[in-house]
Amino acid sequence: MTASDTLLRKGSPEYRRTSAVLFVAGFMTFAILYVAQGTMPAVSEDFGVSPAVASLTLSLTTLPLAVMLVVMASWSEGHGRRRLLVGSLIGAAALTLAAAASPSFPVLLTLRVLTGITLAGFPAVAMAYVAEEFHPSGLGTAMGMYVSGTGLGGMTGRLTGGLLAGLGSWRLAMATVAVVCLVAAIWVAARLPSSRNFVASPGGLGTRIALIRHPLRDPVVLKLALCGFVIMGSLVSYYNYLQYRLAAPPFGLGAVVISLIFAFYLFGTVSANWMGRLADVRSRRGVMLLGFAIMAVGAAGSLVDVLPVVLAATALLVFGFFGTHAVASGFVGTWAAEQRAQASALYLFGYHLGSGVVGYVSGLFFTRFGWSGEVATVLVLVVVGGVVALSLPTATNRR
Length: 399
Hints:
The protein has 18 helices and no strands. By secondary structure, it is mainly α.
């Protein structure tokens, strides 16, 4: 049997089953990660902290996650993917349940840091798993399914956080997400197939971490990592402070109503699948540029102080974000000829670093200049992303 015979081909029952498991696992990962974003206003009120400080419940989860991605990916190069994929989900769900009982803000931040470290194992190797186990002809669709799961999970985590924080408390929100994800993690453990095309790298962990130098020397991987920084930094910062804007004049919306803005992540599920399929037959660079353009239009449109316009602009921003991320993720997997897990981890390092850094720093601009300061931040980032995408190669599979 050749290596090609073991790859999951589009349309086969196993292809569909494995795609569904990855969809659920991606859902859980981002529900755990982003439930904190929906609870930010409630955390601000409960502990008496500013919006920028409250955003640390998310930033101090994504930052350690970004740092640990390389370590986790390097460990998996010698020990396989599946154990890490499953273990990180179960551990992160348990820590989220503990965070719901935090007696103080410092304890909450500490548990969120530990959650980020533990959760890093799944995104660190998920893209490598997809690139290794799925046939290239269906890779874009499979990656689109995974990213759709992350989008729906992020939406559900945020929406659950906002709704339950408004109706009850942020503690109830975190506990609910944790329990559901713990049950789902057990299901994933039972259904996720073992790697059939994984080849272990020789040497110890230190040796494998040193292999990050290969993708660090690859300008295409570095450019994609910068795109990830821009993509995620734009969306997270936008949503962090849109909640506070909608609560203030001229809108004056309540917490439960505001939480419904996270339902727009459903548009991301559509765009990740659509742009993923489009990237299977078109230039990934071109599809990424389309996504950045849609994000820019959405951000600029939100400046209008008319609620329906702001909501439509938000939907556009979300649509562009998820499509662009799905295509960039697949780009990394098809481009990296060796140390694929490290290359994927480098992309995700930029991606989650953008969430942590821009998510907090843009809060300072929001505090100083209001919503126009936040939109200006997003537009600058998107323009940078578009310029970087223009310099990417048209062909994505050099192997």
